[in-house]
Amino acid sequence: MLGRVADQLYWMARYSERTENMARIIDVADRMTLTPQTDETRQSAWVSALEVAGAQSGYGEKHGDINGADVVHYLAMDPDNPASIYSSIRATRENARALRGSITTEMFESINATWLELQAMNTDVLRPGARRDFFLWVKDRAHLFRGVAEGTMLQDEAMCFMNIGLYIERADCTARLLDSKYHVLLPASEEVGGALDYYQWGTLLRSLSAFRAYHKIYRDRISASRVADLIILNAQMPRSLRSCYDRLSETLEDLCGTGAPECQRLVGRLHSGLRYQRIDQIFATGLHEFLTAFIEGNAQVGQQLARDFMMVR
Amino acid sequence: MPKTKFFNEMRADDNTVRAAYSDIARWLDSLPEGHLGIKTEEAELLFRRMGITFLVYGREGSNERLIPFDVIPRVFSAPEWDLLSKGSIQRVRALNMFLDDLYHGAEIVRAGKIPAELVFNNDYYQIQMHGLDVPGGVYAHIAGIDLVRVSESEFYVLEDNLRAPSGVSYMLENRAIMMRLFPELFNDNAVAPVDHYPDELLRNLRAVAPPGVGEPTVVLLTPGAFNSAYFEHAYLADSMGIELVEAPDLFVRDSRVFMRTTEGPQRVDVIYRRIDDEFIDPLAFRADSLLGVPGLLSVYRSGGVTVANAMGTGVADDKSVYPYVPDIIRFYLDEEPILNNVPTYMLRDPEDLKYTLDNLADLVVKEVHGSGGYGMLVGPASTKKEQEDYRARVLENPSGFIAQPTLSLSTCPTYVESGVAPRHVDLRPFVLSGEDVTVVPGGLTRVALTEGSLVVNSSQGGGTKDTWVLQE
Fold first, then answer.
1. I need a labelling partner for B360 at 20 to 30 A (CA). Which of B85, B297, B303, B316 fits?
2. Which residues of A touch B234 (CB under 8 A)?
3. Which of A307, A91, A146, A248 is nearest to A99 (CA)?
4. What is the pLDDT of residues A70-104, one digit of tens each?
5. Between B62 and A260, whose confidence is greater?
6. Whether the Cβ atoms of residue B91 and residue B329 lie closer than 8 Å to each other
């Protein structure tokens, strides 16, 4: 397969996954603002959403003050924001258009239909009463992307590069979402482990589709260390870091066979940190520090993949 | 506009339906009110969903547009097609021999059949091709012959496209969409299939691989996703099962061309290129080109790779060489041309120039190097002011222009706002050369959707139709 094609497959899958993740990021911030709280803490939820999305400076330049409706629009529909849902769907579709010869007709048509539907929407879909439906639509389309890929594509190299893109992007977003809790203010009157704290962790779980899973596994009230345990170390949770890296290293093994490029070593190192650490060790070094290092390492894997396979010069 | 009698392909002068269209006429009569409108919308939706679009460049960056599709097919009878295909094949065979001769001694020039300066001073004559033997002596592997019909039996060639003719994906997709929208039509009519075109193309491309290559690797070289014909490039690569490469995917090493794959370099033997000569190799042509592959030309010259179409074919489809094609056919094949050439006035000739300027209102005047329907004057459809402006342009550089009589392009029934009405059409069949010279039974019919318009180019508001060849 052409190196450029591998690169485009990888990015197409990343962008598609990013649309879903961005919908989750906005959704969690939106829900966090709904509890009784001060304006300051409400604002901090939006700031944290911008932070997680890496869109703080871009938003600042365009809008200045933090305002819920503006943040939602900037993250969801603004074509000027390269990380917005709009931009990511467009980028998915641009890659798909360039890849027509390498993906199935069904894949292209599904991605193209998403793009056409998005273009037919107006900012009305972001009204407070409507936005949750919009986020659901975004998630549905991303699920469809993976379903069509799974159901129509050959299980070959192309699929490997798409899966690699998917897991790297998903791991990145999960780590960022979990870290966002670190940035959200807890009012001075609230205790750690109090009602609002509890509510914030619960929202985070919901945004990762993990609320029920949490209760099924722990059968206990929500605590920070158990949430972190679930989101970082649990191998059965589809969006956990551990799960992403289990599948990433599996895919790399399929792809590389007996060869062992540098990226495989980098993945192995991060993977073992997820397999052989306990959550209290992670808390001892600091959750924020752990997540920051993970996000950095995950980005390095992406860069190394480009060097190893995509003949990026 | 003068009253001209146009040949109506469906109906004879007494309004009776011609034999080839009998089923189409019955079908049109049987359709309930509004049916064609609904089907037209359905077709548009399908084209949009499948992303069959072309890019239009404008101030707002690039825009994806659909080429309008007309749901009423254009029909040729078997004998009509026999004439068209034989005539197109004859032309392409002669033009390939002409190119081979031009780059190997130019016997035809020495025989005095064509002026030397017309060939050797031509912008498209590639000195790098001089003395180079290409596999099978084939230069134009893919040719698109633009034809118009003026009467029952008279067809004229407007242009031979020998560089990188496009539009074949529309021939294929138009058929696929028609079969999806109107399957019943295909039960009643024995329409010759066209969907083997990609197989035919691949067979011919493999046949011209450098000698000694067992299983040739063929690739399609595209300028990239922002090219207006990108859909077609991807479509053809996909249907042939070959890699769609951009120039940075290719590189030259040890006098061979390779592509960068995830498993390292892989050798490439045949390049079906859809980029122009001057962009193909920045070392040999334009140093500022980002599209090319450095060193490709030297590999090509040493026989390490085949490029299709060959470089330097533009000299044979140039408008200034066009008037000589009938003589070219006679010279190499010793046959009479089957298809007519449009009488052409060369404005570098003072007599022709005078005649043209005296008759601007009746003639079509074109730039020698123009294409796409831009920069031409259609005399009968132009205003006095447009004629005067054009006269000034011609006088600045007469040798940059040719003139032809306005042809009475035939009409076909077409679905337009007011219902079904005749509109002017042309035809581009695609001729393939390699192992042999063939043409799939069909082509791209372009239709001028505006009433009375003779300009069928998609860049000027033209649409397309499915083109049927009935089997006997």
1. B316
2. 97-98, 100-101
3. A91
4. 999 999 999 999 999 999 999 999 999 989 878 99
5. A260
6. yes
C-alpha–C-alpha distance, residues B318 and B368, integer Å: 7
Query: How confident is the model over B54-113, as pLDDT tens digits?
Result: 766 554 445 677 889 999 999 999 999 999 999 999 999 999 999 999 999 999 999 999
Residue B227, preceding bond cis, omega within 30 degrees?
Answer: no
Whether residue B49 and residue A116 make contact (CB cut-off 8 A), yes or no, is yes
The interface residues of chain A toward chain B in range 248-267, judged by CB-CB distance below 8 A, are none
ipTM: 0.71
Mean local confidence (pLDDT), A37-66: 87
Chain B residues with CB within 8 Å of chain A CB: 48-51, 224-225, 230-231, 234-235, 237-238, 243-246, 248-249, 259-263
